[in-house]
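tokens incoming
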């Protein structure tokens, strides 16, 4: 029996699964974020090590891995360090972006291979494939000059609103009252200290993105500003998606759009304005249900690399069962 490993590395966390060649998920674990724009090579290796070692520890039957696919960027030294640590052949390791495993995950979960993938987690990006098979992508420029419509983007605007309420530019509305309670921020001074950390430990990208979870609860409870904030996030993502649809020339064709990332857990407050804005540009566009994670797709790609047809019904069903068991689909 051969085993493969799939990794889904994002800005906040890294998911890992070990899968048998028959599609059964035998191990799973999680590590920290791996975005190399924001963490060191040592931090990258630590996050991947935690995820991989944890998954292998939970799959005692595994003696060696036949293939590894990771949905993350990885430089040469980090790749060699990971290969050395686990006795892996570099030729049997693939590091790809988030979009390809998202397509593979969509095939497992929905029996669809989408034309467009919209990612909105800690950061954001959009990728697409035209009839010529060529890949087009926009966004993904990071939190300083990009990540529009992401959880980080929502978090920044939510805290900016709190500042305006604290200093009197706006009345201390329901949004401010409930968010300050949820975040345990009683006043302007505490907020500023948390954000900048007195120059010692400023707020991290993960912590800023986590603010969006509280905003989502407010939006789903009917708070007007929170609803508007997620509406704008959806429209920002649609602006990117429509650009890719234009690039691949499918604005007048049926185009399938796969959503992926934690921001979509907010539900219809973000997916509905996204859908409306995309369909206004591409009327035949169809949005597929959001994916929580792409690690099952990474495992499916690894299986294909060793000659296993991950689309075959029995194997796909086992992959899907593992994804549902660990809340990854």
């Amino acid at each position: 029996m051969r085993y493969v490993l799939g990794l889904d590395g994002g800005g906040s966390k890294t998911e890992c699964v070990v899968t048998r060649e028959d599609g059964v998920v035998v191990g799973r674990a999680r590590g920290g974020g791996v975005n190399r724009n924001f963490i060191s090579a040592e931090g990258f290796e630590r996050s991947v090590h935690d995820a991989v070692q944890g998954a292998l520890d939970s799959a005692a039957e595994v003696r060696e891995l036949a293939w590894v696919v990771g949905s993350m960027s990885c430089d040469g030294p980090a790749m060699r360090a990971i290969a050395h640590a686990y006795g892996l052949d570099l030729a049997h390791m693939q590091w790809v972006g988030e979009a390809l495993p998202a397509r593979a995950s969509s095939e497992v979960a929905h029996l669809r291979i989408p034309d467009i993938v919209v990612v909105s987690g800690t950061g954001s990006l959009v990728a697409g494939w035209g009839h010529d098979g060529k890949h087009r992508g926009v966004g993904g420029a990071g939190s300083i000059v990009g990540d529009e419509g992401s959880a980080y983007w929502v978090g920044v605007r939510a805290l900016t609103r709190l500042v305006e309420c604290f200093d009197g530019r706006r009345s201390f509305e329901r949004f401010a009252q409930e968010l300050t309670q949820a975040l345990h921020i009683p006043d302007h001074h505490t907020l500023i200290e948390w954000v900048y950390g007195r120059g010692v430990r400023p707020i991290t990208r993960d912590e800023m993105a986590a603010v969006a979870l509280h905003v989502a609860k407010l939006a789903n409870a009917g708070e007007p500003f929170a609803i508007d904030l997620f509406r704008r996030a959806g429209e920002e993502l649609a602006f990117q998606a429509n650009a890719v649809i234009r690039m691949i020339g499918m604005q007048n064709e049926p185009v399938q759009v796969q959503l992926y990332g934690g921001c979509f857990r907010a539900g219809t407050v973000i997916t509905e304005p996204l859908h409306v804005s995309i369909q206004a540009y591409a009327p035949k566009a169809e949005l597929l249900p959001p994916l929580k994670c792409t690690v099952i797709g990474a495992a499916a790609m690894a299986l294909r690399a060793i000659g296993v047809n991950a689309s075959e019904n029995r194997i796909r069903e086992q992959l899907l069962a593992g994804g549902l068991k660990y809340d990854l689909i």
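note: The domain at 112-146+230-291 is CATH 3.30.420.40 (Nucleotidyltransferase; domain 5).
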